[in-house]
Automatic annotation (TrEMBL):
PANTHER family: PHOSPHO-N-ACETYLMURAMOYL-PENTAPEPTIDE-TRANSFERASE, PHOSPHO-N-ACETYLMURAMOYL-PENTAPEPTIDE-TRANSFERASE HOMOLOG. Its cofactor is Mg(2+). It comes from Candidatus Reconcilbacillus cellulovorans. NCBIfam families: mraY. It is an enzyme of class 2 (transferase). Belongs to the glycosyltransferase 4 family. MraY subfamily. Pfam families: Glycos_transf_4 (PF00953), MraY_sig1 (PF10555). This is Phospho-N-acetylmuramoyl-pentapeptide-transferase. GO terms for cellular component: plasma membrane. The chain crosses the membrane at residues 6-29, 50-71, 77-101, 113-130, 150-169, 176-194, 200-217, 250-272, 299-319. GO terms for molecular function: metal ion binding; phospho-N-acetylmuramoyl-pentapeptide-transferase activity; UDP-N-acetylmuramoyl-L-alanyl-D-glutamyl-meso-2,6-diaminopimelyl-D-alanyl-D-alanine:undecaprenyl-phosphate transferase activity. InterPro entries: Glycosyl_transferase_4, PNAcMuramoyl-5peptid_Trfase, PNAcMuramoyl-5peptid_Trfase_CS.
Length: 320
């Protein structure tokens, strides 16, 4: 597939997201789909209360329309869309319950986990029917483990759960996740082109375009948030893309900032429960820097730069 097609798919998704967002914002406002803000969070975030959320629907729709137009109907694209929309559906339910009951928590942890397990299991079944390679390659080594689906399915499900929630944790500052995710998917565009995976290249490019189009309205001060429907949907698409590229472990490096955000939450919880002390002023990590006096833009720019470095390092490692 020509680079031109991938570029056009990215541009189309960008334009779709830019066109859809101004229409979605007033609709979400009329439906009273406003953001609920945690009272224990940074005080500067209290003014964000009521900002339209669930804008992730725009990202998923724009990316899907563009990908279907330029990649066509294929089993690989079906896997990618089921992953993105399956996890997005779990996020949608979570967002909707938050709005319905006017609280900062929607689905319970068990309910959300169950929904994510179902979506991940569905993707595994689809991959199995495609005869997907079950080997797990360790980057920068010649090590490759293949225990068949008995090993690969639990591994991939764990990766889906871990990375989708890690990406969700990164959605806490205006523009942060949209920028980070566009960089990570951008790395997958390059990787897919180099590995002659045209469908994946178009899908990843469409996600980049949709995320950047959404970022126009999500940059500080945000006019709309993506909500869990967006963050979980992006997470599902990201892991599915990594699986089809056989870059499962590499995705942990490409999405290194997401991993760091997740680890900051885990370390904070473990430290508080075992020692009664917090390591960070607040987790996820981006909130720690906010409470340390950094402005939102300083946090975003610093994390974007780190995300770009992780993506570049991931690509460098994949070439070895």
């Amino acid at each position: 597939m020509e680079v031109k097609t991938v570029t056009v798919a990215m541009a189309a998704a960008f334009l779709l997201a830019v066109a859809m967002s101004p229409l979605a914002i007033p609709v979400l406002r009329r439906l009273k789909f406003g953001q609920h803000v945690r009272s224990e969070g940074p005080q500067t975030h209290l003014k964000k209360k009521g900002t339209p959320t669930m804008g992730g629907i725009v990202i998923l729709l724009a990316a899907a329309v563009s990908a279907l137009r330029f990649a066509g109907n294929s089993p690989e694209l079906a896997v990618l869309l089921v992953a993105a929309f399956g996890f997005g559906l779990v996020g949608f339910l979570d967002d909707y319950l938050k709005i319905l009951f006017r609280r900062s928590l929607g689905l319970t942890a068990r309910q959300k986990l169950f929904g994510q397990l179902l979506a991940a299991a569905a993707v595994c079944i689809m991959l199995a029917r495609l005869g997907h390679d079950t080997s797990i390659a360790v980057p920068m080594t010649s090590i490759s483990v293949d225990g068949g689906w008995w090993l690969y399915a639990p591994f991939l499900i764990f990766l889906f759960l871990g990375m989708s929630n890690a990406i969700n944790f990164a959605d806490g500052v205006d523009g942060l996740l949209a920028g980070l995710a566009s960089v990570a998917f951008g790395a997958f565009v390059v990787l897919a082109l180099l590995r002659s995976e045209p469908v994946n290249a178009v899908f990843a490019a469409a996600m980049v375009g949709a995320l950047l189009g959404f970022l126009v309205f999500n940059a500080h001060p945000a006019k709309m948030f993506m909500g869990d429907v967006g963050s979980l949907g992006v997470g599902g698409g990201f892991v599915a893309s990594a699986a089809l590229l056989k870059a499962e472990l590499l995705s942990l490096l490409v999405g290194g900032v997401f991993v760091v955000e997740m680890l900051s939450v885990v370390l904070q919880v473990v430290s508080f429960k075992t020692r009664g002390k917090r390591i960070f002023k607040m987790s996820p990590l981006h909130h720690h820097f906010e409470l340390s006096g950094w402005s939102e833009w300083q946090v975003v720019v610093a994390f974007w730069a780190l995300g770009l470095a992780c993506a570049a390092l991931g690509l460098a490692v994949s070439f070895r």
